[in-house]
From TrEMBL:
Keywords: Aminotransferase, Pyridoxal phosphate, Transferase. It comes from Eucampia antarctica. This is Aminotransferase class I/classII large domain-containing protein. CDD domains: AAT_like. Its cofactor is pyridoxal 5'-phosphate. Residues 134-492 form the Aminotransferase class I/classII large domain. One of its GO terms (molecular function) is pyridoxal phosphate binding. Homodimer. InterPro entries: ALAT1/2-like, Aminotransferase_I/II_large, PyrdxlP-dep_Trfase, PyrdxlP-dep_Trfase_major, PyrdxlP-dep_Trfase_small. GO terms for biological process: L-alanine catabolic process. It holds the Pfam family Aminotran_1_2. Belongs to the class-I pyridoxal-phosphate-dependent aminotransferase family. Alanine aminotransferase subfamily.
């Protein structure tokens, strides 16, 4: 009856079936080794390790321990359901183009012209009828910078020189403080930069990295993979996910007392999954704390264009480091990406990191590490340079570019507002304002019966809840436990990236599901 109610409200296409009849699959790994590859089921359990020298006993145990919730159990289940023909609303990952965001024309035109042989592109007789003059000019300039080998050749491991110049100019203009192309590394998304820095930081199993709780799980995953330890510093939900000096000091003191050596601290601003935008004072607390304690600051600023509230603006940590008197010796690495912002081209794998006040010998080692990856993808490098060097007033492309950016930003503002409002309207769900980034991170109250049922099923309560939501409505969220959270808190992370009508449908589905879920376990 209640399921029928949901179907009436939300529409039949997204509804799957009564979650309480569903048999959740516990073997979430099998789909990963199916499809043309050897099937796990072909091997009796006791024989598999005799058949393969490289098996789960002999492989990297750190990799086995590593977890990555954004593509974890609930998402794997969603993939299975999708393959069975069910319609799934994927709100688990900040991947805008996967859920309908359109590319910005200017970027695609230049990418295409950089890739095409000159005679089919920049030098084609009708090129000037097909492309705005500034696009052709920019494409020619980029082609010259890439060199005659074109986009199919490896580049300098740190990235193409012109693009590093452009990034340095962008940072200097943004912050009002100089940046140097020699300190810029183009990377395959921010992820590759983060991975390289953590690789270079963690030198023993006592080494620890401070990460926000909740955090974007690339940090916990890579720390585990690299054999380090994580030290959480809790963000205060009641204060809009702010960070406080007391919490930082206590986390460090506790870690030191346990023999952990804190090497670095990661900050994500605007926050993922928490959506807060930190002001100068909050950033200064972090900078001073790191400077005072000789801790390298990793500033994850991939959402710097994603700020949705009038009373907040993005301020870079580099700016704070340059302007705050106690931060002269702060060792800082900042990350940016073409996956987020208004571009949202996650598959392009563009990004950069800027090193500020990093030991030259360490910088050389980071360069050596970049060399082992040869270079970051050339399309990603082009996109990164375009991100920091958009068309300016007077360029033929300017008006269209502005309009396309405006449409994306204004829709993100509407969607962030309606999702948070919709969540807060559901009795038992509370959600802080999503001031920035692409996510809402609500806290939910569920009956004790549900917590016990989750335990009996071997699930965390929020995984149990997320699987139920998926089964009932086709909405795929990530259990909050995958990001880390205060003990006893239950919640999930959802993006607000699906198109506005789909998102509204999802909000209705969330409400209906929460109601039947709570009734069921009351
Ligand atoms: C906070 C944060 N940092 C880094 C990344 C990695 O992004 P990419 O490697 O696509 O640039 C993400 C992706 O969602 C993110 O949310």
């Amino acid at each position: 009856m209640l399921i029928q109610q949901i179907q009436d409200e939300v529409g039949p296409t997204t509804i799957i079936k009564d979650p309480y009849e569903a048999q959740p699959s516990h073997d979430m790994r099998s789909p990963m080794i199916s499809g043309g590859m050897l099937e796990k089921a072909d091997f009796p359990v006791d024989e598999i390790k005799k058949t393969f020298a490289w098996n789960t006993d002999t492989m990297s145990q750190n990799l086995r321990k590593m977890q990555y919730a954004v593509r974890g159990q609930v998402v794997l289940k969603a993939d299975i359901l999708k393959n069975e023909g069910r319609q799934i609303i994927f709100t688990n990952i900040g991947n805008p183009h996967a859920v309908g965001q359109k590319s910005i024309t200017y970027y695609r035109q230049i990418l295409a012209l950089c890739d095409l042989p000159a005679e089919y592109g920049v030098d084609h007789p009708v090129a000037s009828q097909m492309f705005p003059a500034d696009v052709l000019e920019r494409a020619r300039k980029y082609r010259a910078a890439i060199g005659s080998s074109g986009t199919g050749a490896y580049t300098n491991s740190q990235g193409i020189a012109l693009f590093r110049d452009n990034i340095a100019k962008y940072i200097s203009n943004r912050d009002g403080h100089p940046a140097h192309p020699g300190n810029i590394f183009l990377t395959n998304g921010a992820s590759a930069g983060i991975q390289n820095c953590l690789t270079a930081l963690i030198s023993s199993d006592e080494d620890a990295i401070m990460i926000p709780i909740p955090q974007y799980p690339i940090y916990s995953a890579l720390i585990t993979l690299l054999g380090g330890q994580q030290v959480g510093y809790a963000l205060d939900e009641n204060m809009g996910w702010q960070v406080t000096q007391e919490v930082l000091e206590k986390s460090l003191a506790d870690a030191t007392a346990k023999g952990q050596k804190v090497k670095a601290l990661a900050v994500i601003n605007p926050g993922n999954p928490t959506g807060q935008v930190l002001d100068f004072a909050a950033l200064e607390v972090l900078c001073l704390f790191c400077a005072k304690n000789g801790i390298v600051l990793l500033a994850d600023e991939v959402y710097q264009r994603n700020v949705y509230v009038d009373n907040k603006e993005f301020i870079s940590i580099k700016k704070v480091a340059c302007e705050s008197p106690g931060c002269k010796n702060l060792e800082l690495i900042s990350f940016h990406s073409t996956s987020k912002g208004l571009i949202g081209e996650c598959g392009r794998r563009g990004g950069y990191m800027e090193l500020h006040n990093i030991c030259p010998d360490v910088q050389s080692e980071l360069y050596k590490l970049a060399c082992t990856g040869l270079c970051s993808g050339v399309a990603g490098q082009i996109m990164t340079s375009l991100m920091v060097e958009p068309p300016v007033k007077g360029d033929d492309s300017y008006d269209q570019f502005q309009q396309e950016e405006f449409d994306i930003l204004s829709s993100l503002i509407r969607r962030s507002t309606s999702l948070v409002k919709g969540l807060n309207a559901i009795p038992g769900i509370t959600c802080q304002t999503a001031e920035g980034s692409m996510y809402a991170f609500p806290s939910i109250q569920i009956p004790l019966g549900a917590i016990e049922a989750a335990k009996a099923d071997g699930q965390s309560p929020d995984t149990f809840y997320a699987l139920s939501l998926l089964e009932a409505t086709g909405i795929c969220v990530v259990p909050a436990s995958g990001f880390g959270q205060e003990k006893g808190r239950i919640g999930f992370r959802t993006t607000f990236l699906p198109p506005e009508d789909t998102l509204n449908q999802a909000i209705a589905g969330l409400e209906m599901h929460h109601e039947i879920f709570c009734k069921r376990y009351a």
